């Protein structure tokens, strides 16, 4: 992943500073530079995940897996497995969505798929390593545990209150179209045209929303200074934790990118829990993610998803402030 980001950075450097002749450090060039890297990175990840999920869905006995998860849904085991899968996959909030669609396509229960969608952007192995060096093992372990717990509880809650009916119609139809009890004996080569067609259909639906979402995130990245956030989530503000989550939503930063901001906030006296709540909001509740989710969920489910996760992040922030 680091190699890919490095290559994309070189491409963005060439386009912005050499080809377009913009000056390094200007607000517009900073936003455009960020847009080129983020849009290319997310688009490549989405394409890769979409095709990968097509192949996985084609080979795995998804009906048996779905039946197993349905039987153990009450115990929360499926939600825990999905959250732990999210913790070990290096996806941001936007690139997790194709895998979420793949789970819906395989008729995995909504709550279990949401557990993955919640945890995946919050926990990243590279971010964990940096987090450990910066804040120590106790804070890191509690953060990882909190991210997994949020995924498990959030998925179970949204399933319990009947949010499955608020998936977008095309996602629900996608699931119905893949019900098959016959063993498929075709080779991968013969399956590829079907996998390719389904991947193209999914990408056509998602790419415009990625473009718009990353565009908004890039504008904020280039034009809103870090000092803007420090002013409102200071130690003296009793509403700093919920405010930190609300203010971070328009941003689009991955877990690694937000860590320098987290360190900067803590160094300037912002309580650790408040800073972590800001970090969680930026990587788990971004505006680009909301725009992308609009294509796969109806507004009732998006509101419930953001509200549940936002409340969990606020409680996590207060919890961290209480113990550290």
Biggest pleated sheet: none
Outline, from the CA principal axes?
globular
Number of alpha- plus pi-helical segments: 15
Beta strand % = under 5%
Distance between the termini: 33 Å
Question: Any descriptors?
Answer:
single chain; 324 residues; mainly alpha; 15 helices; 0% strand; globular
Give an overview in words.
It is found in: Cell membrane. This is Permease. The chain crosses the membrane at residues 6-22, 34-60, 80-101, 113-135, 141-158, 206-224, 239-262, 269-288, 300-323. Keywords: Cell membrane, Membrane, Transmembrane, Transmembrane helix. The protein is mainly alpha-helical and 324 residues long. It has 15 helices and no strands. Among the domains are: 1-59 and 188-223, no CATH class; 225-323, no CATH class. It has helices at 2-19, 27-59, 62-71, 77-88, 97-105, 110-122, 125-160, 169-177, 188-223, 226-232, 240-248, 255-267, 272-284, 287-293, 299-323. It is globular.
